[in-house]
Structures are given as C-alpha cells and as structure tokens.
C-alpha cells in the first residue's frame, strides 16, 4: 500500500512543481503576445494529433505482441496494406499542410515590423491613432529607453499607456542582445550598428518583467527591467515625474553610462540630446567619429562616379563628361571628408 502511494506521489510531483510556474506566455496582457500564445496552442494540438496516437499504438503493440501473449495473431508474410499506408502518410501530410498555412498567415500577421491594425480581437485601431515611439538600446548590462517625443530617457524602467500602439526601435551598443517582454510580445534581437523594430500594444494595467533573452556576458542574468502598463493619465504623470529630474543624457553622459555595469538601479533623465539615438545606431557617439550612414552615403557616391567613368571610357560618349564633372563637384567634399576620417 505504501509503495502504491509513493508511486502515485511521484507521478503527481511534476504537476506540483509546474504549479509554481508563471505561464505568462499563454496568459499575456498584450494583443500580439495573445495571438502568439494562441499560435503555440493550436500548433501543439495539431502535433498532438500525431504524437498521441503514435505513443498509444506503440504501447498497444508492445503489450499485445509481448512474448507471453500466445493468442496474438502472427503473420510473418504480411508486407503491405494500402489502407494503412494512406493513414500513415495521409494524416501527417494533412497536418503539415495545415501547420504550413497557419505559419504562413501568422508570419505575415505577426510581423514585428508591421504596424498594428487592432488593439485586440474586438477593437480595430483608428486611422488617426498615432503610436508612441520608444528607442531601445541594449547596454552592458542594462537597458536604456529613450522617448524622443517626450524628450526623456530611463534606465531599466519602461512605461507605456494601455491600449495605445507602441513602436520600438531597437539597437545595441556592443554585443548582440535580445529584447523580451513575455506579456507584451515575442523577443526581438538587438544588434550594434543595426535597427530592428517591434510594434505592440499592452491591454491591461500592471507591472511586467522584461529581460534579455540572449546571453551577452557576465551581467546577463541581471539584465532585467520592469515594464509598467498605465492608464493614459497615469502615464502623463509618469512623464512629468521623469521630466522633473535634473539629469541630462547627452553624448558625454551616455559614454559614462555605456561602461559595463551590473544590477544598475533605475535612472531618469529629464532631457535627452535629440541626435543621441542616431549616433548610437550609427556608432559615432565619440567626437570625430564618422557615422556609418554618412560613410555608406559617401561610398555610394563613389561607386556612382566610378560607374559613370567606366561607362564613359567604354562607350566613348563625350557628352558624359559634363555628367561626371557634375557628380565629382557635388560629391568631392563628402569624399574628401570620408577619406580624411578613414585615414585618421
């Protein structure tokens, strides 16, 4: 009797351990995360249509054709069944087709770059609605959030009003990272010198966890922040509170903030240099550094000039001389600056 109770207890132990899990992915507070959660459930159920019968039949065959069961039919010459082949190949094929269709549709519908067209399943977004823009920078090992429209910035604290679309522009300062708020939407990579995007909306008030989902060094495990979903009036009060701070975030203070640190406390900046995020993205925060977009623009001009010169020499078209001269005149200043910067 005791051994039976012990065995039953061991079988129930995984359920007891799982009772402490926070299944926020399947019970989120944002519409995008809710749609992603539904996709996980539907995909899992479709796959279980194959997994459960296969496991059940495996157990059934092992039991029925065990060595001690002499009543089971033994047919060593059997080699083919059209009906069985149709079931074995037809059922998985149909499920793969359905999964493929669902994946294709959801991939486009839940594209993080795609502007939102609804607040939730029952409320579309009006054409006049304007999203809030938040610029996210993954640092070592903390998160910087810049609100360009409000002119403020925070470290390790994020806030947005509920039922208002939010457009995140995401980059990193040094190594690749991942921006993830399970209650809001799926994770999005943050990479230095590149910008990714996420369009999302939070539908319920609350305080949610955000963190890095990509290992990035010693302080990775503490690279967490709190995300506050607020009523519009409360969000406005929060913005005023941050604006009241005397700290200002410019290139100098950003350089100090960028230094690696762990367990960074929440910080508010009442003012932000308007060109700071662009400098971070294009890796030209330090004075005298040529920005990546400027460098690429100069390279594109140089390629145009080279192509024009080659065509002129190839075709012998004298009328192209004026075009080449014009291109050289308009681009020479940029080219000289770019060459000087690279030489430096």
CATH 2nd-level architecture of the largest domain = Sandwich
Strand content: 15-25%
Q: Which superfamily, in CATH terms, is the homologous superfamily of the largest domain? A: Cupredoxins -  blue copper proteins
The topology string of helices and strands comes to HHHEEEEEEEEEEEEHEHEEHHH
Strands, count: 15
Overall residue-averaged pLDDT value? 87
Query: What is the first-to-last residue Cα distance?
Result: 83 Å
- The domain tally reads 3
CATH first level of the largest domain: Mainly Beta
User: Could you say which structural class the secondary elements and strand pairing correspond to?
Assistant: alpha+beta
Q: Briefly note the CATH topology name of the largest domain.
A: Immunoglobulin-like
Q: Compute the gyration radius: what is it?
A: 29 Å
Q: Can you list the strand order of the major beta sheet? A: 10-7-3-4-5-14
Helix content: 40-55%
What form results from the Cα inertia axes? extended
Helical segment tally? 8
As residue ranges, the low-confidence spans are: 335-344
Most strands sheet: 6 strands, mixed
Verbal overview:
The protein has 3 domains: 16-72 and 80-109, Helix Hairpins (Orthogonal Bundle), CATH 1.10.287; 123-281, Sandwich (Immunoglobulin-like), CATH 2.60.40.420; 292-343. It has helices at residues 2-18, 31-64, 82-109, 232-243, 251-258, 276-281, 292-315, 320-343, and strands at 118-120, 123-124, 132-139, 142-147, 152-155, 157-161, 166-172, 177-181, 185-190, 196-200, 206-212, 224-230, 248-249, 267-269, 271-272. The chain has 344 residues and is an alpha+beta fold. It is 44% helix and 21% strand. Helix 7 packs antiparallel against helix 8 (320-343). Strand 4 and strand 5 form a beta hairpin. Mean pLDDT is 87; it is low at 335-344. The protein is extended. The strands form 4 sheets. A 6-stranded mixed sheet has the order 10-7-3-4-5-14. A 5-stranded mixed sheet has the order 6-12-11-8-9. Its main location: membrane.
């Amino acid at each position: 009797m005791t051994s039976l109770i012990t065995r039953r207890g061991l079988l129930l132990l995984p359920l007891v351990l799982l009772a402490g899990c926070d299944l926020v992915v399947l019970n989120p507070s944002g519409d995008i995360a809710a749609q992603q959660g539904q996709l996980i459930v539907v995909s899992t159920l479709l796959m279980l249509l194959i997994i459960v019968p296969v496991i059940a039949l495996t157990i059934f065959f092992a039991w029925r054709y065990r060595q001690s069961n002499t009543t089971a039919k033994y047919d060593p010459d059997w080699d083919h069944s059209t009906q069985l082949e149709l079931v074995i190949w037809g059922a998985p094929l149909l499920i793969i087709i359905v999964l493929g269709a669902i994946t294709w549709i959801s991939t486009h519908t839940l594209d993080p770059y795609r502007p939102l067209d609804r607040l939730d399943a029952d409320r579309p977004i009006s054409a006049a609605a304007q999203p809030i823009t938040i610029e996210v920078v993954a640092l070592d090992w903390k998160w910087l959030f810049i609100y360009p429209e409000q002119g403020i910035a925070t470290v390790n604290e994020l806030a947005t009003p509920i039922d208002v679309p939010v457009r995140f522009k995401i980059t990193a300062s040094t190594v690749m990272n991942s921006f993830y708020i399970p209650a809001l939407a799926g994770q999005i990579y943050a990479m230095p010198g590149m910008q990714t995007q996420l369009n999302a909306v939070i539908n319920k008030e609350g305080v949610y966890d955000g963190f890095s989902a990509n290992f990035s060094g010693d302080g990775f495990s503490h690279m967490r922040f709190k995300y506050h979903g607020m009523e519009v009036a409360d969000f406005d009060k929060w913005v005023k509170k941050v604006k009241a701070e005397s700290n200002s975030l410019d290139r100098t203070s950003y350089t100090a903030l960028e230094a690696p640190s762990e367990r960074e406390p929440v910080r508010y900046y009442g003012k932000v240099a308007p060109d700071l995020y662009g400098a971070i993205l294009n890796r030209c925060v330090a004075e005298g550094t040529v920005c990546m977009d400027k460098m690429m623009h100069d390279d594109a001009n140089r390629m145009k000039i080279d192509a024009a010169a080659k065509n002129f020499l190839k075709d012998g078209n004298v009328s192209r001389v004026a075009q080449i001269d014009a291109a050289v005149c308009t681009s020479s200043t940029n080219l000289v600056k770019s060459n000087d910067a690279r030489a430096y």
